């Protein structure tokens, strides 16, 4: 099979598997159902993916890559460092509507201690940190933050956004957006009033 044809087949399997996982959830989707729904043979699926877990992780990696590319398409619309921080926070809130997000949480919670899968999941979760780092570098170029602190600031900012994602279950999308924007404001300006403790 040519590499281009193999890639098309792999992408088709991922796209159809995504539909099925969204309909049924991760745990309720069997490999036999994936075969039937995707129209690919079990051998073809196993040619491209080691297991159902591997297929799902590759699906999450693809979604994460698309999210990052979506940000790269939007970022030119934001003029400076601060606007980009608010913009990427909005971009994260917009992604809450992605139905695969809930399935990913189910997968992660029920995932056994498979070190390979855990390492791949960690790499996926760390992907957006490169985008945060780019924004922080821009802040350093603008003289807004110290270049020596960029890696730590990127981790802290990413942790803020990731931590706020729990609020998705407690608030509407618009209320989540307001909370995220307040989080960015607190990140930039702090929580102390007039410098007093």
How would you explain this protein's 3D organization?
With 197 residues, the chain is mainly α. 74% of the residues lie in helices and 0% in strands. It has helices at residues 3-24, 31-38, 42-48, 52-74, 81-95, 100-110, 115-141, 150-164, 173-189. Helix 4 runs antiparallel to helix 5 (81-95). The chain is elongated and about 65 Å long.
Question: Count the strands?
Answer: 0
Distance N terminus to C terminus? 66 Å
Q: What's the main sheet like?
A: none
Q: SSE order, as H and E?
A: HHHHHHHHH
Low-confidence stretches: none
Approximate shape: elongated
Structural class: mainly alpha
Helix content: over 70%
The total of helices stands at 9
**Assembly classification:** single chain
The radius of gyration computed from the alpha-carbon positions, rounded to a whole number of angstroms, is 20 Å
Proportion in β-strands: under 5%
Average pLDDT reading = 89
């Amino acid at each position: 099979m040519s590499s281009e044809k193999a890639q098309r087949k792999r992408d088709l399997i991922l796209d159809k598997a995504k539909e099925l996982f969204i309909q049924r959830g991760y745990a309720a989707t069997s490999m036999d159902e994936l075969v039937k729904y995707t129209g690919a043979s079990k051998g073809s699926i196993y040619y491209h993916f080691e297991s159902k877990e591997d297929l799902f992780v590759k699906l999450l990696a693809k979604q994460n890559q698309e999210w990052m590319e979506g940000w790269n398409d939007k970022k030119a619309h934001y003029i400076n460092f601060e606007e980009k921080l608010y913009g990427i926070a909005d971009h994260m809130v917009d992604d809450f509507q992605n139905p695969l997000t809930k399935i990913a949480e189910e997968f992660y919670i029920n995932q056994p201690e498979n070190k390979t899968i855990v390492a791949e999941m960690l790499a996926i979760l760390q992907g957006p940190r490169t985008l945060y780092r780019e924004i922080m570098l821009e802040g350093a170029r603008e003289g807004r933050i110290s270049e020596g602190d960029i890696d730590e600031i990127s981790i802290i900012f990413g942790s803020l956004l990731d931590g706020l994602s729990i609020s998705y279950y407690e608030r509407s999308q618009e209320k989540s957006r307001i909370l995220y924007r307040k989080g960015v404001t607190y990140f930039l300006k702090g929580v102390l009033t007039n410098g007093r403790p």
